[in-house]
Amino acid sequence: MFDKILIANRGEIACRVIKTARKMGIKTVAVYSDADRNALHVEMADEAVHIGPPPANQSYIVIDKIMEAIKTSGAQAVHPGYGFLSENAKFAQALEAAGVAFVGPPVGAIEKMGDKITSKKIAKEAGVSTVPGYMGLIEDADEAVKISGEIGYPVMIKASAGGGGKGMRIAWNDEEAREGFQSSKNEAASSFGDDRIFIEKFVTQPRHIEIQVLCDSHGNGIYLNERECSIQRRNQKVVEEAPSPFLDEATRKAMGEQAVALAKAVDYASAGTVEFIVDGERNFYFLEMNTRLQVEHPVTELITGVDLVEQMIRIANGEALSITQDDVKIDGWAIENRLYAEDPYRNFLPSIGRLTRYRPPAEGELGEGVVRNDTGVYEGGEISMYYDPMIAKLCTWAPTRAQAIETMRRALDSFEVEGIGHNLPFVAAVMDHPKFISGDMTTAFIAEEYPEGFEGVTLDDGQLKPVAAAAAAMNRVAEIRRTRVSGRLDNHERRVGSDWVVGLQGQDFAVTVEADQGGSTVRFEDGTTHRVEGAWTPGDSLAHMTVDGAALVLKVDKIVQGFRLRTRGADMKVHVRSPRQAELAKLMPEKLPPDTSKLLLCPMPGLIVKVNVAEGDEVQEGQALCTVEAMKMENILRAERRGVVSKINAGAGDSLAVDDVIMEFE
Question: What band does 483 get if pLDDT is binned at 50, 70 and 90?
Answer without folding.
Answer: confident
